[in-house]
Amino acid sequence: MIRWSGKRLIVNILLFGIFLLAAYYLWFPPIWACQTVRFRGFSKIAPAVYASDQINTQRRDSLLHFIGQARKRVSGFWGEQRGEATIIFCSNREEYQKFCLLYEGAGCSLGTPTGSWIVLNPDGLNVDVIAHEMCHDELFARLGWMKAKSSLPQWFDEGVALMVDYRYSDPDLTRRYNGYVQEWDILTNHGKTAPHLQDIVTLNGFFGTQRGQADASRTAQSYVTSGKEVSRWLGLVGQAGLQRLVQQVRDGYEFDQAYREIEQYHRPKL
Ligand SMILES: [Zn+2]
Question: Please, which of 15, 56, 88, 182 could form a disulfide with 150 given CB 3.0 to 4.6 Å?
């Protein structure tokens, strides 16, 4: 049973209120667009997969092939795939902008109480991007809507997604952390410009967003910092630690505390 103190309950109610306001002002147009995708020049090409009518058959076939590969990658990482997001594949940036909150990147995922969607633009036609977005959806499916939105720092959400996205580092688990250390070293000038984890807890902090525009160099630094941290942590705690963390956050534990305690528990005893 979860026991919330009065203070914590108020914080959760406040967070919920803030989320509802944000959802109302920011998310409604994209969510509405996702929900009505079939009336917007998109066709269903497989269960829960829509492609723009501008996309030719060859690219549709590639999309289905990459989705199959991404599903295998996500199941391999998590044990099984529980996320059931509908995938929307756009033919250009204009279409993509109708469905996504952030216009940058090759894909985005939207999780709501009424459904979840993964939206891809033409650059998202590859297994790395699709698996990455599926991994966000997986955390969402495992934690539930409210916990996924309010309890996870952005660096962790992105760091876990990077574990199935090999654009920055090695598919081989034993080399992944070192791969991130090298990338991080290059992109952050030996760590001098690296963000601290506490600076990349929020979406805006992570993407360095100012006046609605993400900062590309800050974003890249945030990604490698997250990948480095999560691959380090996962190297110590393994899948068992990750599953435990998800369970604890679901049960109402603070993320930071659970993350630290699980690491402590798995740390080799001297
Ligand atoms: Zn991501």
Answer: 15
